[in-house]
Amino acid sequence: MSDNINFKDLWAKQTTIVPNPENLIVEIKKMKQSNLRKLVLTNLLLIATSIFIILIWIYYQPQLLTTKIGIILTIIAMVIFLFAYNKSYSLFKSHMNSQSNSDYLKDLLAIKAKQNFMEKTMLNLYFILLSLGIGLYMYEYTSRMKPFWGIVTYGITFIWILINWFYLRPKQIKKQKTKLDAIISKFETVNDQLNA
Amino acid sequence: MLVFEEIYKSYWQKIFRLCMGYVNDHNLAQDLTQETFISVWEQLPKFRNESSIGTWIYRIASNNCLRQIEKQNRFPKAQLPLNLMEEKQHNIEPRIQFLYKCIAELPEIDRIIISLELEDIKQAEIARIVGLSEANIRVKIYRIKEKLTQKFTSNER
Description:
The complex is a heterodimer. Helix content of chain A is 83%, strand content 0%. Chain A is an all-alpha fold. In chain A, helix 2 (21-60) runs antiparallel to helix 3 and helix 3 (65-90) runs antiparallel to helix 4 (101-142). The two termini of chain A are 30 Å apart. Chain B is mostly helical. In chain B, 73% of the residues lie in helices and 0% in strands. Chain B contains seven helices and no strands. Chain B has helices at 2-23, 26-43, 53-74, 94-104, 108-118, 123-130, 134-156. At the A-B interface, helix 1, helix 2, helix 4 and helix 5 of A face helix 1, helix 2, helix 3, helix 4 and helix 5 of B. Chain A: Keywords: Membrane, Transmembrane, Transmembrane helix.
């Protein structure tokens, strides 16, 4: 019987080279910069689009209220998207990871559930506002066209919105959900180990 | 800064072993150890001695291991762009390898508990790190050791 295997002894024999702490600090700074760059880049695209729309407003001076409402709705849609994107970054508070494993797992599960809800709601809201905004915005310009071309323009836009709503949106939601669900179920399994 | 370097030097190996017990993959364990110390570096100014520094670091390290689940889904392999010295796993005794392999095959929480136990951490402290009662930890450690002994005896037969 080798009942007295000295596990502690074996365990302690696993060693590795300790890298220089200076390197780590340099890397931390680099990493922080690249994270920030990523955040700025995503937001930049949306900000640029919003500025572009505002410039159109100033340049073309829309007459009808519908156009103005349309522009505002479109911008709100983008702000919501931006907000949701940034928010999912900050849901996870860094100080959380100094809690006990069991508290940490509970928090992670809560965050994932919140993310699941938020991603779906925000995406729906984004699509609704964007579609409404574009629909209203177009009215002023389409009304100046001949009825035939007006109908064609709206028809095409409408089809595009339908594709977005019934194909792209569910696909996106499903993609996010599958990813999150897999993580959640794995976290739940680990959480159950604590209660076993 | 001086404090960080002291912590770094006295805990690097220990945290590495904890991560190694969790993933049994040398490179990944290095990455996880790095991430832990990045967290430690960032949060050290906020550390208030509410728990001992050891408990605090082990909590960060084990939680980081648990979060590995999420990252595995995101990237095929978590990797920080660090030029660590290339290090071959030079002739590690097969028994050591076998021990780490067995531990990495346990359920996640058990991996953390046994790694801390083998690192000679008091059961009361393990209880605080994991968030279970001391009695519960004692029972778990007993069962895990039994399981490991079984695996070892059947392997060496």
